[in-house]
Specification:
This protein is α+β, with helices and mostly antiparallel strands. It is about 40% helix and about 15% strand.
Length: about 675
């Protein structure tokens, strides 16, 4: 670990510009990195927080093909949406760049050439999958097939999303091109490889020994598994039409593989910032007194803990990351978040439905952050955390303090009298919280840190509830002056302590309390006079608003609609049955009928006893549809009846035919209805 660093370089994973930002991205990467950066700035540290749009690779090409636009149009569209989301949520990047920028192309090309000229690459001709019909080599994501490890028939050429295995496209069973649907052929092509096996000893010493005690167990465990499994050379170039040209002779038509160029985006973003601010970029990447921290999701652990460090080590002049506090995945209502399936809560849509409530989402995501294991976001939990915690604890305390101060003292902080033991104990406990919260944040335990912040608000609520100034005011107004003074010190502390977690709330609370500049955490730890007597505060405003059931139901209904649409889109029809002759079909007597009576079969959950007018008679039919329909709802329903089906005895009732049914996209039973104008008894042929 870097001890007492002079500066911090903090990176957040570059979001792919093939779609907007959703809550999984926010919970996994951008909120924790923003909390950490804001916290360090409040401590007066030299902090550089960089990110940028990842605009190369096959994901962009696939999106362009799907939307019928160019790759450039894709990245311009989503870069704009992503930037606005980050601005709207006040993610405090010092620089947000793009990998399509010239400074990035130049930086990545120069990095490649340095390693190339040092002889760090292996040049090798390999057999790759090639789509002869499309006349192009197939990048990993343009190949789909059966996973050799779990049998998933929709595994990609680089990864099986069902079992999580990392794959090569050539590993797939029955591979198909996603471009044409054709079976690809093998064709020779030349590429450059980074020999990761050469760096095994370095990685073992640096990570498995050096970071055994300070890296998160989920990160350490995944890295150890990779290293223990043996590292192999990995291609750094690809046959693609979108990306950064490989800058050496004999590499025409080839691009840098996106995993090679994307992490270099942190460096180029730093250079862009330095040029704008008139600073030297190199100390933030090459000085041993700099602490480098990568915030990523678990799908990027191998790139940031093995591959990128091997690249930096090979180049020779860069520092290595001090920590990579990767989070696991956040699921949504029990299902995996998916951009392609629209199973997500998109940030830009969230703000349309919950305007000015960025901090509520930040709070809910941090409280439930997937720090060491996958967690689940549900709208009911979101509502409960807002109503039961932000509103009932934090907001309630601040509202009571401000309302009472305005009521008793016209908004002027009262002069305290002699402090009681309770007052002294409360103020002493308050002074301890900056160190407690700092300890959690320094160890990347953001859920724990947020919980301690809320304990400050709980401290305030308990103090007021125990002291009851609204009762004491009648007989001992001098005592109430002290009580309100103590409560106001807690409120003032909250305005600064909450800033990393709830920046919008911090600004609002500071405005209410008329605190011009944030209180330093050192001051909160040392002083009991954070907001002095005689200071004028403002009128009460609600920090948080209760979220009603109707608002939550709207979000749940939206997700249900998405689920239904996905089922309809992905529904696969059953294969055709064995061929029959016309005479076989002609044997079936299908008639139009109307249900005239319906009742439940006694002691049977699934069966209804129907009386059906078939036009030729009124007959009894027993149908297994009781779990889908109420008897009273289907009386008068036109149906299609197989009338010459041999009778069958069901629970003592003779059933004389069959009603034709199917299922819709949601899996619910649906009647196969004849046209309303068709009369009972008409034959269907």
């Amino acid at each position: 670990m870097t001890q007492n660093p002079k500066r911090y370089t903090i990176t957040a994973a570059l979001p792919y510009t093939n779609g907007p930002i959703h809550i999984g991205h926010l919970a996994g990467v951008y909120v924790p990195s923003d909390i950490y950066s804001r916290y360090l700035r409040l401590q007066g540290r030299d902090v550089l927080f960089v990110c940028g749009s990842d605009e190369h690779g096959v994901a962009i090409s696939m999106k362009a093909k799907k939307e019928g636009i160019t790759s450039q149009e894709v990245i311009d569209k989503y870069d704009g949406i992503i930037r606005k989301s980050f601005i709207d949520f006040d993610i405090s990047f010092d620089n947000y760049s793009r990998t399509s920028a010239k400074i990035h192309h130049d930086t990545a090309s120069e990095f490649f050439r340095t390693l190339y000229e040092k002889g760090d690459f292996i040049e090798q001709v390999t057999e790759q999958l090639y789509d002869a019909k499309a006349n192009q080599f197939l990048a990993d994501r343009f190949v789909i097939g059966t996973c050799p490890k779990c049998g998933n028939e929709e595994a990609y050429g680089d990864q099986c999303e069902k079992c999580g295995s990392t794959l090569n496209a050539t590993d797939l069973i029955n591979p198909k091109s996603t471009i044409t649907g054709e079976t690809p052929i093998m064709k020779s092509t030349k590429h450059w490889f980074l020999p990761l096996d050469r760096y095994e000893d370095f990685l073992k010493e640096w990570i498995l020994v050096g970071h055994k005690n300070d890296w998160k167990p989920n990160v350490y465990g995944q890295v150890k598994s990779w290293i223990d499994g043996g590292l192999e050379p990995r291609a750094v170039t690809r046959d693609l039409d979108w990306g950064i040209d490989v800058p050496v002779e004999g590499a025409e038509g080839k691009k840098l593989y996106v995993w090679f160029d994307a992490p270099i985006g942190y460096i180029s973003s730093t250079k862009e910032w330095a040029l704008r601010e008139g600073k030297d970029w190199e100390p933030y990447w090459k000085d041993q007194d700099t602490k480098l921290v990568h915030f990523i999701g678990k799908d990027n652990i191998v790139f940031h803990c093995i591959i990128f460090p091997a690249m930096l080590k090979a180049e020779g002049s860069y520092i290595l990351p001090d920590n990579v506090p990767a989070n696991e995945f956040l699921n949504l209502e029990g299902n995996k978040l998916s951009t392609s399936k629209n199973w997500a809560v998109w940030l830009h849509e969230y703000l349309e439905d919950f305007p000015n409530q960025q901090d509520v989402l930040r709070y809910a995501l941090t409280s439930n952050a997937p720090e060491t294991k996958d967690n689940d976001f549900t709208w009911k939990d979101f509502q409960a955390r807002n109503n039961n915690e932000l509103v009932a604890i934090y907001g309630n305390f601040i509202n009571r303090v401000v309302v009472l101060t305005n009521k008793y003292y016209n908004g002027v902080v009262p002069q305290p009298n002699e402090l009681s033991e309770v007052d002294e104990a409360t103020l002493t406990e308050l002074k301890a919280y900056p160190a407690v919260i700092s300890s959690s944040l320094e160890r990347y335990r953001f859920r724990e840190a947020l919980s301690e912040l809320m304990n400050v608000a709980r401290l305030g609520n308990k103090y007021l509830a125990d002291e009851e100034p609204w009762k004491v005011i009648k007989d001992n107004p001098e005592r109430v002056q002290t009580q309100m003074y103590v409560a106001l010190q807690i409120a003032a502390a909250l305005s600064s302590l909450c800033e990393p977690f709830l920046p919008f709330t911090a600004k609002k609370l500071s405005r209410i309390l008329k605190i011009a500049s944030p209180l330093s955490w050192a001051t909160i730890s040392e002083s009991s006079d954070l907001i002095p007597a005689g200071h004028q505060i403002g009128e009460a405003e609600l920090l948080f608003a209760k979220i009603e059931d109707e608002e939550i139901q709207k979000q749940i209904d939206k997700l249900e609609a998405t689920k239904t649409a996905n089922k309809a889109e992905n529904k696969v029809s059953e294969p055709q049955k064995e061929a029959i002759q016309f005479d076989d079909f002609a044997k079936m007597d299908l008639r139009v009928g109307t249900i005239i009576e319906a009742e439940k079969m006694p002691k049977a959950n699934k069966l209804l006893i129907l009386k059906v007018d078939t036009g030729i008679d009124v007959r009894t039919i027993v149908s297994g549809i009781a779990e889908s329909f109420k008897p009273e709802d289907i009386i008068g329903k036109k149906v299609t009846v197989l009338v010459n089906l041999a009778p069958r005895n069901l629970r003592g009732v003779e059933s004389q035919g069959m009603i034709l049914m199917t299922t819709n996209a949601e899996g619910k039973l649906v009647f196969v209805n004849p046209d309303a104008e068709a009369a009972n008894g008409e034959t269907i042929n």
